[in-house]
Amino acid sequence: MASTTRSAPQDKAFSFNILDRDPSSQARRCKLATPHGTIETPAFMPVGTIGTMKGVTPEQLSATQTQIMLCNTYHLQLRPTADVVSHFGGLHSFIGWDKPILTDSGGYQVFSLGRINKISDKGVAFQSHIDGARLWLDAESATEIQNKLGADIIMCFDQCPPLPCDRETIEVAVERTVRWADRCRNAHRREDQWLFGIVQGGLDIDMRRSCLDRLVEIGFDGYAVGGLSVGESHEEMVTILEALESSLPAEKPRYLMGVGMPRDLYASVRLGIDMFDCVLPTRNGRNAYAFTAKGPLKMRNNTHMLSEAPLEDGCDCYTCNNFTRGYIRHLFMAGEMLGPTLTSIHNLRFFQRLMSRMRDLIQTGELETILTEFPVCNAGATGTLDDD
Amino acid sequence: MASTTRSAPQDKAFSFNILDRDPSSQARRCKLATPHGTIETPAFMPVGTIGTMKGVTPEQLSATQTQIMLCNTYHLQLRPTADVVSHFGGLHSFIGWDKPILTDSGGYQVFSLGRINKISDKGVAFQSHIDGARLWLDAESATEIQNKLGADIIMCFDQCPPLPCDRETIEVAVERTVRWADRCRNAHRREDQWLFGIVQGGLDIDMRRSCLDRLVEIGFDGYAVGGLSVGESHEEMVTILEALESSLPAEKPRYLMGVGMPRDLYASVRLGIDMFDCVLPTRNGRNAYAFTAKGPLKMRNNTHMLSEAPLEDGCDCYTCNNFTRGYIRHLFMAGEMLGPTLTSIHNLRFFQRLMSRMRDLIQTGELETILTEFPVCNAGATGTLDDD
Asked: How many angstroms separate the CA atoms of A117 and B165, rounded?
């Protein structure tokens, strides 16, 4: 096992600095500099799975003040393959997004989407969910693929067990995740990419802590908490983050994978998390679900038929500046592509406004004010505004 | 029957002026002023059927330098209804497009999409193609609906027979079309909308001429040629336009409905047509068909997998400025919405560049040069560049 003294040469563009700390929680405001620009944290990364934010152009995405997007290694390796992306000079130039990008390792998708044929300590044999093609992914190939894709931040190949899950399965997954992380660390070849380790361990606090300690011993540029947002309750998620907070290296970025709803974001920011990713803004946007500070709207609801209000009063996005709820409802009722596009643009901007406001409130030491400004961040927030 | 002396009060914003005439054809360059802005002709109107250019925002549409868009009365009356649109202050504010709009009358769609229950001189009883609802449309209601929608230019309710068609059916359709036009003229209530008559008559030159003469006798703000682009050959279309050219009032706008492919546009511009509409840029764009001056590309073709070229060299559209053929092919292969959006944006800009260049060449008396700059305008142009 490697020691903490091992350190690879690194692009000087990278740095991570803590700017402010919230006096009443573990929340912190930081700056993460990468070769493609600086990210202010806490940051929300929307997900452009196959190299596109579904229904939204890079120009429209940039206008939502998204600082960094996530792309999925599993999907990109199936189509168009990392070799094709590399031919175009990497993800940034291929997809037309010159700001930071993070790629996941494919671990989560192999286990959630692929048809697994065999898992061993060596790696995973699986079949494509698209055409059944027989494929192989392991620590070395997941890292090599991410080196070819060329994101600013890449992730270790991990084993993400579903929840609930028996203790033995979790133990095996944690053991593999740590060993694979070490192999990823050794396989990583690019100075202009930061590599993050991923903490697994299900809802078992001891296993979570052990996994984290061993990852810290190997030494990574940042640490992610994986294996959450897979069916557990809000409270269970909070319990795990509380247990890990003091052990997560304070001077490194902390990333909670696959989260999430506004109340999850707020609770996790309070527990010191710096980065998040989730498909919610676009997936829900495509399904006529619009986020607002007071709660969601279902845009197919009859209530909106004659409404001249924007999706959200005071929102500065393209959608709210130009279109009424009535028009957006019409688009969804008529099955028009513009409905998903406009609602996704609003939702993306909503998440960026929420994070931006949390950063401001951390700076002024008033983070709890977010509960007044964005009531949807309350742990008990449920239901929709239009009672659909 | 009304006489040509009848004239309704009119918004002073409207005017139509011929600026240049091509020395070697009937082509002309004109300016058509409307309450929502001035259109330079020959002009191509893309079609935003249900109140949206499919997959494209008004901002993106405007960036293609589209001057005027067409919306379909039939579709809008089914969803969300003219009353709802009127509640929002009319189409311009409802859909967020502050430039000129033209609405068709619904006649074409009733006959092509609706399930006809009964046609009589009074009007048409039909069923919605969406939910089978029993509906009625006639000259008065089609005009009233268009008055409520509030487009800058509206169309008479006509009967458009399919081709080929027997003489008696065409005679009946022409007779109804003329009588209904007169009723539309009487029913029209808004000074800030111009009303165009529609010439029917199938491929029968005598009936076409007779229909036009009777419409001119009634007197309209512009004249459209309908019932073409419904299956006839390029040469048949040209024959009809040649026969009508000298009888179409020179001082009024001339609009060829539903056309079309670049070669049809060029041939029709030479025959004095000022305005066109067609779904081709967006419908073909959604199906991975990209227009270029030299011929179309099928973007799913393997040829494009590693191509770093834009859809069209020299094109100034958002798509060509930012994305490669390889990326666009990837989007179509992965079924991503952005593929249709980016290709539609390029196609819309292609049609606007083609029309703009034709206007420039009419001004300098060199219209035929378009055949060198846009070889796709040659009557014999067929096939695709990628041999798909």
From this structure: 62
